[in-house]
Amino acid sequence: MKPISEFALELLDELSQLFSDQERWDFVISSLQNMGFNAMNMGCFSPTTGVLKWSRSSMTAEWLEEYSLGNYADEDPLLAQVTNGIESIYVKTEERAVSANSNKSIGLYNGLKASGYMHLFSLVVPCPGDEAKIVVLSSDRPDAEQIMTDQAREMRILATVIATNLGPETNEDEGNVVDLGPILASTRPLSKREQQVLALLSEGLRNDQISDLLGVKEITVRTHIKSARDKLGAPTREAALVRAVQMGLISPEHYRKR
């Protein structure tokens, strides 16, 4: 196998000759497979708010369905990078499954392992403006741990090349890339009223203002907020708003006006 740094430079040169996101995604996924990487996830988010603007994955439909049904987003350390400020992570799923301290985490790592996603490398890449991209590369190669740890600098170069050359415009009917938005949004759905209350909170309204607007008691508003927080696994209402935007449950435009 050619060195990761050489592969990254060749990838950059080839991407400069492709002009649509779909073409670039297809070429990158194919090139990564030839290098022994079996999947890639990428998302774009705001480092200030943690709001995930878009996300794509080349993982299998079977695993993504299991991820959704298991509500694994709450335990996903790579997804958590959009809010916790950690720049780069290497995950060996077999070891994480043994050391995990919750049934959901154990399920997440065992599921990844069973699906062939044995080793994961992630990097957050700063972009112009209030924007960053996270790239996650997976491999089941026997030497993947050595590559992702001993060649971490080269892996960072590769992830940066990918992050700075791929955008969100993909067509699921024409390629092997899936929009993760609906999958994240399918975990523990909010009721219409809970969603409505969070949307009003995102516009900057106080509990008493929401109460007046909806014609309900203020304690009812607080109950809806608490229920939404519990479903979203959010410790605060601010965290609930961030997660709701990430899942497409409330409008990012409203949230950014706060």
From TrEMBL:
- Has keyword Ribosomal protein? no
Its keywords, alphabetically, are:
DNA-binding, Transcription, Transcription regulation
A biological process term (GO) from this entry: regulation of DNA-templated transcription
PROSITE patterns attached to this UniProt entry:
HTH_LUXR_1, HTH_LUXR_2
Q: Please give the name of this protein.
A: HTH-type transcriptional regulator MalT
Keyword Transcription tagged = yes
Domain HTH luxR-type: from-to ranges = 183-248
Q: Which gene encodes it?
A: malT_2
In terms of SMART domains, this protein maps to: HTH_LUXR
Q: What is the lineage of its organism?
A: Bacteria, Pseudomonadati, Pseudomonadota, Alphaproteobacteria, Rhodobacterales
Q: Which Pfam family, any one, appears in the UniProt record? A: GerE
Q: Which organism is it from?
A: Falsiruegeria mediterranea M17
One GO term in the molecular function aspect is: DNA binding
Question: What InterPro entries does the record tag this protein with?
Answer: Sig_transdc_resp-reg_C-effctor (IPR016032), TF_LuxR_autoind-bd_dom (IPR005143), TF_LuxR_autoind-bd_dom_sf (IPR036693), Tscrpt_reg_LuxR_C (IPR000792), WH-like_DNA-bd_sf (IPR036388)
